[in-house]
Amino acid sequence: MSKHTEVVLRAEVENLGHAGDVVEVAAGYARNYLLPQRLAYVATAANKRRIEQERKKYEQKLREEQVEAEEIAATMAGLVLEFQMMAGDEDQLYGSVSTADIAERLVERGFVAARGHVRLDNPIKTLGDYEVSIRLHPEVSVPIRVLVTRDQG
């Protein structure tokens, strides 16, 4: 049995490709994840034709979502989220500010956000001013400021 399988993606798969792309992946990855999750088809001639039809619909939907994401990004531009946190002598937080905390604060502000939209390599563990990227769409990200200050209470 081959160690690699050629598949046609049905949807965007992060770090792999976009809908309609023909990619070669490990056979186990295709068999255990991509195919059961309906993210890809085995790359046959019939499936390539089928995915081309789906791709056209997907691209139209993606264009519409991108326009919507750009409108949301415009309203988010310049946004500052402030977190007041208890901190020690050397500005180390007693806890941290995570992607979930930032997403929750965005929801409180009226934006639709999930922790997967927030691009943060590691939780914030010290006081300071941070720039955090919010990925609203595969082609649209907006930077926001996260200001972590000392809770005086």
Count of DSSP-assigned helices = 3
The CATH topology of the largest domain turns out to be Ribosomal Protein L9, domain 2
- Computed over alpha carbons, the radius of gyration is 21 Å
**Neighbour order of strands in the largest sheet:** 4-9-8-6
The CATH architecture of the largest domain: Roll
- Head-to-tail CA distance between termini: 64 Å
Describe this structure in words.
It is a single chain. The protein is α+β, with helices and mostly antiparallel strands and 153 residues long. A four-stranded mixed β-sheet has the order 4-9-8-6. It is built from three helices and nine strands; from the N terminus they run E-E-H-E-H-E-E-H-E-E-E-E. A hairpin with a 2-residue loop joins strand 8 (128-137) and strand 9 (140-150). It folds into two domains: 4-65, Ribosomal protein L9, N-terminal domain (Ribosomal Protein L9, domain 1); 77-150, Roll (Ribosomal Protein L9, domain 2). The model has no long low-confidence stretch (mean pLDDT 88).
Short structural description:
This protein is α+β, with helices and mostly antiparallel strands and 153 residues long.
Present the secondary structure layout.
Blueprint: E1 4-9, E2 22-26, H1 27-34, E3 40-42, H2 45-76, E4 80-85, E5 92-97, H3 99-108, E6 118-119, E7 124-126, E8 128-137, E9 140-150
